[in-house]
Amino acid sequence: MAGSGKAHLRDRGTTTIRVEDLVVEFPAGRGRKVHAVSGISIDLAEGETLGLVGESGCGKSTTAKAMIQLPPPTAGSVEFNGVDLTRLSGEELRQIRTDLQIIFQDPISSLNPRRKIGDVVAEPLRVWGPHDGQEQERRVDAMLEAVGIDPEVARGKHAHEFSGGQCQRISIARALVLEPQVIICDEPVSALDVSVQAQILNLLEDLKEAYQLTLVFIAHDLAVVKNISDRVAVMYLGKMCEVSEANDLYERPAHPYTRLLVESSPVPDPNIEIDDTHEVSSELPSPIDPPSGCRFRTRCELATELCERVEPLMRKVGEDHYVACHFPLLPVIEDDDPATIRPQAQDLEPGDGGESQTKEGNPT
Amino acid sequence: MTTAETPSAGLRLHSDDDSLLVVEDLKTHFELPAGMVKAVDGVSFTLARGRTLGVVGESGSGKTVLARTIMNLNLGGNVHTSGSALFEGRELIGLKPKQMQDVWGLEVAMVFQDPMTSLNPVVKVGRQVTEHIRKHLGVSKTEAQETAIQLLRSVRIPEAEARFNNFPHELSGGMRQRVSIAIALACGPKLLMADEPTTALDVTVQHQILNLLSQQRKERNMAMVLVTHDLGVVAGRTDEIAVMYAGRIVEKAPTKVLFGDVRHPYTEALLRSIPKTSQRNHTRLAAIAGRPPDLINPPKGCKFSPRCPYAQPKCREEEPPLQEAWGGDHQFSCWFPVGSDENKDAWERNLAAGLAQTVAVATGSVMDETLSATHSADELAQHHADLDLHISGTTADDPIIDDPNTHDGADG
Q1: Residues A190, A183: contact at Cβ < 8 Å?
Q2: Cβ-based contacts of A195 with chain B (< 8 Å)
Q3: Which residues between 159 and 178 in chain A have a beta carbon less than 8 angstroms from any beta carbon of chain B?
Q4: B308 touches chain A (CB under 8 A)
């Protein structure tokens, strides 16, 4: 979208995390501000994996980190099980953060090189208990085993004695040892080789099942995000473009930006002809001075004067599929009554899509 | 067609007229305190004029060192290079940097992975482009400037005149990579070595840069070696692909043949392990067990054997040579190539013996990199039905490369 709106948010009772109107700004000197995240609303149901995709600089990591108040957002609210994290005091936040853990991109630098693996994984338990040493050791061993690391071998070693994939497994063990509800995975496989990447993705799927985790998964690789996510949110320059059930998003992208991303991502199939004459996009505009209206308009083929003036709001285009665009590639479903929602765009009777259906959807 | 068998690898050599680069048994070893790292260990291939070769492999497979060896960029007393790389009949291996100055840029140019570190941060981009032109083509400053601006335009840099006076840090990553491509193209090389040119870039920018490279290649009838870890990048953009593992080419074939009729278990595993947008979400990935080999003490026999689901005693003893498949241009080094009856037998034997890496592929269990599967006995029993399915899919005339249409029943 490059727009705002909350049409895609679900009922409060069903969600574990509910982010509303999240704004994160960083000072850029001389009174200027980097608008890293500008009014994002998103929610996560329990046991769901939300994928966040977008180009570098679109604010996906900032959004995920702001969810666990790292740093607290400039404005907006983050509700976790009904508690607004932005209003908590330091100590209250510290208590609640045991349920919110994070895995970082670079597995080697996220582990302390001077500490033994057994200590690194046991650290959260030393802070939060149980304080019984034997019980701690038992839990650490169980957790290392769950991520596929032999605790007997690993406990006394240091991070540099392990490969990137193994370090990422250890980071996952550390994040899981307090049995959190939510894990933020910030590009956890981007630094890994393809063969190891598949191991880690499979592991995350298994652990999610075993520990009933809710995951926020950030990656720039669209295929990776699709593989692991139930729901995917596409971000552009601090705004939300499209939120959808994962399969539907890739089959029928409704936002021109999503379509651009899907078309640009390389497919390992030599029989797919690559159109190398079509030059679409220019550069990402500066987040210090983002474009007015729809932020994607400077790169969008469909942009009109309306996009310059008015910021698009989230509108429904399918079952759990929402887009913030004035001219979406799928017809907008105006009526929110589930009975009238049809899965196929072409099934819609004329008029069903409402007056605002300005462009005929063309699911490809 | 005339074919000449070389004793080492049985490679098909093209006739001398159309071959631009002939690499023969190239080896690059680095002497380290821990031992000799065999980064490139006997690579042979031929690249014809105007063709694109994709070199694919994981980190540590030797693909970058191969490119740098051909460019003679491995400097230092601990580098041991042997073998030959003939460029238009001229031996490149062993040339001194001074002699390479007639080759670099003029004959063979290179684009590196990270445009921020390959450009000089304290020199304006314009001068970095013209430096090259003035030195090699001996033109005046104004002429060089005009040529440079034209080059910047041809690589689609908007407002080329203004950009001419920018420093690299004032440009975005994609723009910087366009500048380094402009520098590489400045003197009209016949061969472009592109070492992971888009790895540091976003997908949309990657798409543009790859388009730019293929347009320029066509316009200039330039040959290209595209080094990457991403099979998606090479799929649509190369004529031929060489898959490297532990310093050697394990499989080489025209792109469509490689994807359609994969023979080496490593290539097969690589193709299966990458998630694809054509698959449904939560599709179980076929991860490759274990981790890339130690290049100082590589495993005996076939270097992929410790991770290979089809590995047999022979594989652990004897290294298979690069042999020609019946299809012609297709070469692979495997005793039990995918799609053969021997391969099917090997799979069933390993499965019956409960070999960890075979069971892991069959059950999709999560493997530790040290090859101890973390599956339980129950899971094994549960997946037994899948095993039978898997075996029946692995017949000789049925290449088991992932086909989204057959694997994703839920897709329709």
Answers
A1: no
A2: 58, 269-270, 273, 287-288, 291-292
A3: 163, 165-166, 169
A4: no
**B14/B47 Cα distance (integer angstroms):** 8
pTM, rounded to two decimals: 0.82
Q: Residue B347 is encoded by which pair of tokens?
A: 């799979």
- For residues A260 and A1, the model is more confident at A260
Q: What separation in angstroms does the CA of B30 have from each of A114, B23, B77, B295?
A: 29, 19, 9, 10
pLDDT single digits (tens) B256-314: 999 988 999 999 999 988 898 888 999 888 888 877 888 888 899 999 999 999 999 99
* Both structure tokens of B61: 């497979």
Nearest one of A314, A316, A323, A313 to A343, comparing CA atoms = A316
Name the nearest CA neighbour of A184 among A195, A192, A175, A194: A175
Cβ atoms of B265 and B59 within 8 Å: the answer is no
| Strand arrangement of the beta sheet that strand B79-87 belongs to | B35-48, B19-32, B79-87, B90-91
Confidence of residue A7 (pLDDT cuts 50, 70, 90): confident
Distance in Å from the first CA to the final CA of chain A: 19
Q: Evaluate whether ipTM surpasses 0.85.
A: no
Amino acid identity of residue A262, one-letter, is: V
- Chain B contact for A320, CB < 8 A? no
Shortest CA distance from B369: residue in chain A: A166
What token pair was written down for B351?
């499965």
**Nearest to B394, CA basis, from B231, B262, B274, B259:** B262
Mean pLDDT of A335-357: 42
User: Angle at which helices B341-353 and B356-363 pack, to 10 degrees?
Assistant: 100
Q: What is the torsion angle, in degrees rounded to the nearest 10, for the CA atoms of residue A215, residue A219, residue A222 and residue A227? A: -30
Residue B182 backbone class (left: φ over 0; alpha: ψ -120 to 50; beta: rest)? alpha
Chain B contact for A344, CB < 8 A? Answer: no
User: Is the Cβ–Cβ distance between A343 and A321 less than 8 Å?
Assistant: no
